[in-house]
Amino acid sequence: MVNMDTDLHTRRPAHPTERVVTGRLVRLMEGYAREVRVGQPVLVAVLTAAGVMGLLLRVVRALLSNGGGGARRSFKDLKKGPEFLVTPVRVRDTTDRLVEVELHGHLPQSALHPGDHVQLTLRAQRDPDLPPRIERIVNLTTGQLLTPRTATLWSHLGPALLLQALLGAFLVLAVAACSALT
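^ thats the sequence. predicted structure below, dont judge the formating
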């Protein structure tokens, strides 16, 4: 009987420790979604400040008899956080070592192809078991400089909620300053 475990010697991709890796793009793996963590203290502070402004806006709307109001997302929806695309990427570096890194976010479909000569600027992730993520790609084959972008906490909360929170914080500070002076 042949032991299949010892007969198969597949080389696993390494996680590079260098900040910059140069090599040939071997493969873009199937992407999957990962969620951005939302810190509850930050979310509570933003929602509290926005709530102060929201109360003032409700009073003004009631006085003007304009019943309109936008749909609000729940605390649970906001706490869940945005998802972003994670694509594992395999590259054969200049020492002929197969390395795996992660691409977070989206790039144009025609930006990278297997066989392209690339220079990757990497950053280690918080979880040491995960491969480093790509911060910047220089496609030396096409001469393109590529920077993947992901969703952030601030893009998830949205400009309207952030503006409302900022105005609410200013209103609270103004009331506090007036009460301190009198």
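Residues 5 and 50 are 59 Å apart (CA to CA).
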